[in-house]
Write a structure and sequence with these properties.
The structure is a homodimer of 351-residue chains. In chain A, the strands form 3 sheets. Chain A has an 8-stranded mixed beta sheet with strand order 5-2-1-6-7-10-11-12, sandwiched between helices. In chain A, strands 3-4 form a two-stranded antiparallel ribbon. The first copy, chain A, has a two-stranded antiparallel ribbon with strand order 8-9. Chain A has 351 residues and is an alpha/beta fold. Chains A, B: Its EC number is 1.1.1.8.
């Protein structure tokens, strides 16, 4: 008897998420066709319905197989079908790809719970950490707990529009203990000659890389704003990756140091984030203009919250509750510059 | 009985070397005065004599305490004394700082051999590797063997003019097994609040970081020339640091992996070299203009040899002799693009 084919569902939400992962959507569409022995051809994609020029977004996607407004000239594969119902998208799916903004996770999981295939597994591309009541969680754990299905994590130096344009990129999948074979299905779903997927048994490490790197990017931006040059910025990045690693090892179990120092999710993504990206840019502007971050968010990001300052605040609040803030002088200094009026030039004073 | 004070000699050679380490010369001058309990005040510096505007270079340095021609507006400390005689400079010195171009090492060591203090130790800041007759050596070993005194290595993300201008930087000293206490004298000679020195028991690792990073910078420059974007460049750097580490562990003893992934000599210097620096720049021009490297060296570097292509050639020649070239696909591909006409767009094909 042949094994049942894998059915893929992308649990996205709205244009923003689609723009962020259009490259990965393309790869899923491409690979489900390429590996037709493993995957069902059709990939369902949950899309939060909205009107674009009077038309339903899902209908535009299914008719035009593109998203001119957000990523012009990038075609979506025809086998990726948008649907406004998350239950419909996830029905019978064995591979669930989560790319929601984190505030929607719990409600979406509530809608899905009990309606999933018994063989379903999930993967999270959601950045950030969930800090509450003196506890810190990664979203792969939040999803796994809420759905009752195993959840891996994917993160890496894979800026969406470069992936969508088939420029060479890498990413990292962190899988759970003993589940390498199952994680290889996600490898097969995303890996192509120009998009190399690495696997490592470390869900927490991969997730935390994606979250904590944004704090370091704020520090790198301060450095740029101060005009301190390449040596200082490289030093901030080096110290940053070590604080990220130490934090993960102190507060999560079974974290691998090499996730931070050797994978695409770790050092490579830190590099792209500290040289490109909105966190670095806003932090540079913070030093140069003297404007507070909420003003810069309004001016430069249409009011969207910056992930780096937000994560710095959450992580430092957590470290303060655990009386461990002094163990992370770079996190602490970045937080104090961003929120407590510390002079940016004090960036390295406590290192 | 008080311990004898340490006497420092800088074994430089000509303007080029001085320009490269003027920051370190300043730090030595500053720290010998600051730690007057440990160091003799006077630091002797061997300078290859030449005429500048009709005057002897050593006399200009000793009179004006500056080097307007090479690093304007950076003062040299008054306690650093230039001398055209290397034997004179090294006489009674207990700490010898080597910053010669590598082709001069053997002759200089010959002049010094037998004329050194019995307590002398050396540190090498010389980049590159010595490949001959199927053997590969680091210059710290060449110096140690030629002089018969222990030799450490210093390397890191410390671009000279930023250090000289007291911007925040870090560096790494690799010391020999069991010699941490002695290496701490070099730590004390260079470390300041804005120039942080790390110590690691790994002379080979620190030396090889300084040499092999230049190969990766050529790859990063190809990437820039191809317009492949940030993901691809970060991937090249990530794969690069792993090939550097693997090479060191395969062909040298007692190399520590974290020298590559966690120190200033390793990942931090790789970052500065892949974003700034002449290797990256010339490699980008190689792809964009189609001109061979010897033409670009003539046009962009006044005919000076590029270290990255030179090291790629030496390392790949060594790997070929050892029948191990295929174990290092990034080194190999960079070499083949630079010297054998391989299409730059094949950069990632064998990774």
């Amino acid at each position: 008897m042949a094994t049942q084919k894998q059915k893929v569902a992308i649990i996205g939400s709205g244009n923003c998420a689609i723009a962020k992962i259009i490259g990965l959507i393309n790869l899923s569409g491409f690979n489900t066709v390429r590996h037709s022995d493993v995957f069902e051809r059709r990939v369902d994609m949950y899309v939060y319905e909205e009107k674009v020029d009077g038309q339903n977004l899902t209908e535009i996607i299914n008719k035009e197989h593109t998203n001119q407004k957000y990523l012009p000239n990038v075609a979506l594969p025809e086998n990726v079908v948008a649907t406004p119902s998350v239950e419909e998208a996830a029905k019978d799916a064995t591979l669930l790809v989560f790319v929601l903004p984190h505030q929607f996770i719990l409600n979406i999981c509530k809608a899905l719970k009990g309606n999933l295939s018994p063989n379903a597994q999930a993967i999270s591309m959601i950045k950030g950490v969930d800090v509450r009541e003196g506890k810190i969680s990664i979203f792969a754990d939040v999803i796994q707990e809420a759905l009752g299905v195993p959840c891996s994590a994917l993160s890496g130096a894979n800026i969406a529009n470069e992936v969508a344009r088939d420029k060479f990129s890498e990413t990292t999948i962190g899988y759970r203990h003993g589940r390498r074979k199952q994680a290889e299905l996600f490898f097969k779903l995303f890996d192509t000659p120009n998009f190399r997927v690495g696997l490592i048994e470390d869900v927490a490490g991969v997730s935390l890389c994606g979250a904590l790197k944004n704090i370091i990017a704020i520090g790198a931006g301060f450095c740029d704003g101060l005009g301190w040059g390449d040596n200082a910025k490289a030093a901030i990045m080096r110290i940053g990756i070590l604080e990220m690693k130490n934090f993960a090892q102190e507060f999560f179990v079974d974290v691998k140091p090499e996730t931070f120092t050797e994978t695409s999710a770790g050092i490579a993504d830190l590099i792209t984030t500290c040289f490109g990206g909105r966190n670095r840019k806003c932090a540079e502007a913070f030093v140069k203009t003297g404007k507070p971050f909420n003003v810069l968010e309004a001016e430069l990001l249409n009011g969207q919250k910056l992930q780096g300052t937000e994560t710095a605040r959450e992580v430092c609040q957590f470290l303060t509750e655990r009386k461990r803030l002094d163990g992370y002088p770079l996190f602490k200094t970045i937080y104090r510059i961003a929120y407590e009026g510390l002079e940016p030039s004090k960036l390295t004073a406590e290192l």
